[in-house]
Write a structure and sequence with these properties.
With 70 residues, the protein is mostly beta strands. It is built from one helix and five strands. The longest helix is centred in the last third of the chain and has 4 residues. It starts with a strand and ends with a strand.
Length: 70
């Protein structure tokens, strides 16, 4: 397991590799990931290993994020 410090304190997760991740039409392969059982109200968190390959445009009033490959 791996220790993770969050705003709510210390928690633990499990390392794994995702063979493929699809998010709204954006696809990445062979991503390192950490599975945490209790994230509160969040379903997940995307890191720079995924988002670093995209230009990220956020429209907070519409609640949308547009990912454009570099």
């Amino acid at each position: 397991s791996v220790a993770i410090t969050t705003a709510n304190g210390l928690t633990y997760g499990r390392n794994l590799t995702l063979n493929r991740l699809d998010v709204a039409g954006a696809t990445a392969h062979d991503l390192n990931a950490v599975v945490v059982d209790h994230l509160g109200t969040h379903d997940g968190l995307l890191g720079l290993d995924f988002l670093g390959g995209y230009q990220l445009d956020m429209d907070s009033s519409a609640g949308e994020i547009l990912l454009t490959p570099y």
